[in-house]
# Entry
Amino acid sequence: MLEELKTGPSLVGLKQLRKALRDGGVRKVFLARDAEARLTIPIETQCREAGIACVWVETMAELGEACGIDVGAAAAALRR
# Structure
């Protein structure tokens, strides 16, 4: 499932994700389970309200690697 982030149009980071969610530019969201809940839970709620699929990934490191970056990521998304 994380292969989608490597091949599709994606974005990484909470700020970019929140903005894209507001603008309707997201089709699927990935959140890291080991990220702080105060950061990820509001995004999950926003996704649920917007009807956007939200997938939980085990670690920030795993999510960052799937996005092609050398650091962990709390959140990432596939753009529309």
User: Anything to note?
Assistant: The mean pLDDT is 92.
